[in-house]
Amino acid sequence: MRYVIIGNSAGGIGAVEGIRQVDAKGEITVISNEPYHTYSRPLISYMLSGKTDRNKMRYRGDGFYVENNCKTLFSKNAIRICKKEKKVILDDGSEIAYDKLLVATGSSPFVPPMKGLEKVENSFTFMSLDDAEKLEMAITPSSRILIIGAGLIGLKCAEGIQKKVGNIYVIDLAPRILSSILDDEGSGIVRQHIEKSGIQFSLSCSVKSFTKNKALLSNGETIEFDILVLAVGVRPSTVLVKDAGGNVNRGIVTNDLMETSIPDIYAAGDCVESHDITIGENRVLALLPNAYMQGECAGINMAGGKKAFGKAIPMNAIEFFGLSVITAGSYIGKAYTGTQGGKAYKKLFVDNGVLKGYILIGNVEKAGIYTALIREKTPLDTLDFNLIFEKPGLMAFSKADREVKLGGAAG
Amino acid sequence: MKRVYVNEKWCLGCHLCEYYCAFANTSEKDMARALMNIKINPRICIEQRNGISFAVSCRHCDEPLCVKGCITGALTVKDGVIMINSDKCVSCFTCILMCPYGAISPSDSGAVQKCELCVKNAGGTPQCVKGCPNGAIVFEER
Fold this sequence. Notes:
Strand content of chain A: 25-35%
Helix content of chain B: 10-25%
Distance between the termini of chain B: 8 Å
Helix content of chain A: 10-25%
Number of helices of chain A: 11
Shape of chain A: globular
CATH topology of the largest domain in chain B: Alpha-Beta Plaits
Largest interface: A-B, 49 and 41 residues
Strand order of the largest sheet of chain A: 3-2-1-7-18
CATH architecture of the largest domain in chain A: 3-Layer(bba) Sandwich
CATH architecture of the largest domain in chain B: 2-Layer Sandwich
CATH topology of the largest domain in chain A: FAD/NAD(P)-binding domain
CATH class of the largest domain in chain A: Alpha Beta
Structural class of chain B: alpha+beta
Strand order of the largest sheet of chain B: 1-8
CATH class of the largest domain in chain B: Alpha Beta
Oligomer: heterodimer
Radius of gyration of chain A: 23 Å
Largest sheet of chain A: 5 strands, parallel
Order of helices and strands of chain B: EHHEEHEEHEEHE
Structural class of chain A: alpha/beta
Number of helices of chain B: 5
């Protein structure tokens, strides 16, 4: 059996590990358009801040490809899939035949058209190790940084370089920072905390036009900058499957075995749509844990095993300047707001008797107990909701449930 | 595989497991000296309320969500035991987001901590179990 995996991040690595759970011998080829041993993309900001380094941010150990008997084709772009001949065409003209193919191509930065953007010389995106290294080379202790986008990528970038630059200005079209994961109140708390480190924000605004070192904003302000970082958003990289005639919406469409609509082609990670069980709809959930779990499922199925990927929900754990934020699910239904004093903030969302989502800022202790309630759709009338709302713990479950959790076979 | 299991009805709520855990994870030889004047931050923790108490530590799941979700590769499974490489961990707390038992917590040294069944410090004999005076925590195959 010949397995070909396009992509060398969480989805692709998950697939290697999934395949090897079932098939110890089949030939695995991993294709990557980067020259690097698998690394963790979310760690690029931690690398800039010095919390990790090139070596420690390797997502798997140095011997990973040898131990898993994988052939690697690095610095190669897969440009086309021939589904009839079952082969992948690379940019160097070579052809790689497959029996089972995984597309784990991730996503790429989305740069909206902005007037005068071509005049900006020092413009960067922030998705890859190369992006991070180029940015690191360009910044100086006096650099004025303008970041477009106050989402996870833009703000982690800001945190990563904050100690190494002069000042940082962040703008966003949304009226609040981290708008995809926080409500107004929570966003305000995190914003105030980030502002203490000197980072400035202009929200509800966009860039009207750029000149070489200036941005004229829609609110009339003019921001002078030396370095521009574009962190508006990302788009799933779906073109290979789309061109091959596969079913693609916003992301590649798969079933719960991670099969695309094309026989023997699977997809996993940021390039696919997941079925978000909190809203009952498909959406792109570009999150490393989901990417890994989808990749692992795909791998098991490619190798002839059977494993369904399910229970997908949005979820994020992130920290800014020492303030921890964990969120999960969707913010629908009745909101329960906890007052924990100080910077700590807690909000739980309950709909139809199940937990749909939560936001924890400051105190994130045992957050996974809430995550599990969402994923398992645990009926809240089977436990002591007041108690679990006050403090997540196993005490809130019935004695019988606790016996399973603490005394039964582990799941 | 042998795991730590909890018999809630035998738990006295004495917290000795927490002290034995904290002690096992120091390099000291003497328990009193090791724990004198410090606030312990153990990897096994007692939940206690209205006369009910029980210890909670890593279940070493067969399908460990913490390992699958770990963004750095710091959490791995070795012979069924879920281990943490503190050197790689950046304390992003994705594992805390993922763990359904609340069994992973921040350590005092800038990484997360979790029960490793005393593999690194006591030859794989969980010291919480050894120190439990009432058989409320056991280490066995089920």
